[in-house]
Inverse folding.
C-alpha cells in the first residue's frame, strides 16, 4: 500500500514539474499566435529617468537633448532608451537593441502579430512591462506602464516605439488590441521614435490609456493580454476613414 | 464705385447667410455617412439623478428599483431614462422614445452607421451630448459625458444603451470609433439596457474613456466626431478573437 502511495506521489510530482516547466516557458504559441509572457518590473520611482538626466544636463550644456530627430545616417550617441532604469549607458542607435537585450535582459520576439501577456496587473504603480518586437525589418519597443497620473488613481498606459528615427517610425502603424468579455478596445497610431522619452508620450496621453476598472474587465486571472500588430503606413492609409 | 462696393457687400452677406444656413443644419451627409451635429447640454450637477431618486425611494419602499431586467412582455412603469434631467416622468418602456423626443428634444437618427459630432468639447464638466439611434428595428441612446471622476481632471465617457431590456440588448454589439491625426481608437461592447443607469456604467468605467489630452488629439476645431455602428452579436462573435 505504501508503495502505491509513493508511486502516486511521484506521479503527482512529475505532473507538477511538467506544469512548472510550461509555466516557466516565456514564449508559447496559442491559436497560431505567438504569446509572450512578460513579468513586471518596478520602476525606480524616485530615480531620475534618463530623459530627466539628459534634459537637465542639456540645460547645463553637457549632453545632447533627449528629444531629437536626427536621421540614422548621421548617428550620434543616444542615452539608454530603456524606460525602467536610470542607466548611464550611451551608444549608437544601431546598438540599442543589443544593449537592451544584454544589459536589461529585455526579450525580443519575431512575428507580424504577437500577444503580449502582462502578468501581475495588481502590483502597485509605478510598474512597467517591456518587450521588444522584431517585425518588417525593424525593432520596436512595447512599454506597458502602470502609473498614478492622478494621485490614488493608477492607470495603464501602453505605447510602441521604434528603435530608430522618427522619419523611419512614420512609415509604420502599430495596433494594440484588447479583447475579452464581449468587449474590444483597439488603438492604432504611428509609433514614436525611442529617441523621444516614453515619459513624455505617457504624460501627453498619446497612447492607449486604461483605467484600472477597464483593465480589470480585460484581465484574466491577473494578466492582461494585448494583441500587437505592426503594418506599414500605406496599409493604414488605405483603410477607410470614418 | 459706391455701387460696386455695395454689390460686393451684398454678395458677402449672401455667402455669410449661406454659411450660417449650412452651419445650422443639424444633420448632414459626409462621405456617404450620416453626420449628426450634437450640441452639449450641461448636466444638473447638484440635482439628484433619476437613478439616485429611484434608488433612495426604493430604499423607502416607494418606487421600483433602478436596476431591473424585466422582459418587455411584462411591461412596468420605468423612470425617465434621460441622463440629463431629474425628470419626474414615468412610463412604459415602449413610450420612452417618444418621451425623450418630445419632452427632452433628443434627436433620433436612422442608419446602420452614423457619425456623432459633439460640439464645444471645451465646455466645463459636467456636460452631456445625447442622441438616439434607430437601427436594426431598435432604438439606442448614445451618451457622451464629460465628467470629473478625479477632481480637476475631466474625462470623456461614451456609451450606447438599448431602449429595451438587457435580454434584447445582449443580441447587439455597438462600436464607437475615433479616427484622426493618424490615430484610431475603437471600442466594441454589448450595449447596456436603459433600465440601468448611465451613471453606473460610467462609474464602472465599462465604456469608452478618453482623457482630455487624447480627446484633444481626436478633436477638430473643438468638435469630436465619433463613428457609430451597430451589428447583431452573431457578427461580433464570428470575428476573430485575438
Amino acid at each position: 500500500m505504501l508503495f502505491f502511495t509513493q508511486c502516486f506521489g511521484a506521479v503527482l510530482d512529475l505532473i507538477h514539474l511538467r506544469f512548472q516547466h510550461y509555466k516557466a516557458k516565456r514564449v508559447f504559441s496559442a491559436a497560431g499566435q505567438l504569446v509572450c509572457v512578460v513579468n513586471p518590473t518596478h520602476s525606480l520611482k524616485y530615480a531620475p529617468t534618463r530623459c530627466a538626466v539628459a534634459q537637465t544636463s542639456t540645460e547645463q550644456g553637457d549632453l545632447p537633448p533627449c528629444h531629437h530627430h536626427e536621421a540614422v545616417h548621421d548617428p550620434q550617441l543616444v542615452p539608454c532608451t530603456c524606460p525602467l532604469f536610470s542607466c548611464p549607458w550611451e551608444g549608437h542607435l544601431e546598438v540599442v537593441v543589443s544593449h537592451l537585450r544584454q544589459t536589461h535582459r529585455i526579450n525580443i520576439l519575431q512575428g507580424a502579430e504577437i500577444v503580449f501577456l502582462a502578468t501581475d496587473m495588481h502590483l502597485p504603480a509605478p510598474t512597467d512591462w517591456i518587450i521588444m518586437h522584431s517585425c518588417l525589418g525593424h525593432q520596436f519597443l512595447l512599454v506597458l506602464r502602470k502609473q498614478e497620473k492622478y494621485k490614488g488613481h493608477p492607470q495603464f498606459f501602453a505605447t510602441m516605439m521604434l528603435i530608430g528615427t522618427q522619419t523611419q517610425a512614420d512609415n509604420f502603424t502599430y495596433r494594440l488590441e484588447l479583447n475579452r468579455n464581449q468587449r474590444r478596445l483597439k488603438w492604432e497610431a504611428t509609433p514614436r521614435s525611442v529617441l523621444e522619452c516614453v515619459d513624455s508620450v505617457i504624460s501627453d496621453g498619446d497612447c492607449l490609456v486604461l483605467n484600472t476598472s477597464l483593465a480589470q474587465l480585460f484581465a484574466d486571472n491577473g494578466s492582461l493580454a494585448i494583441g500587437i500588430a505592426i503594418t506599414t503606413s500605406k496599409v493604414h492609409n488605405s483603410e477607410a476613414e470614418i
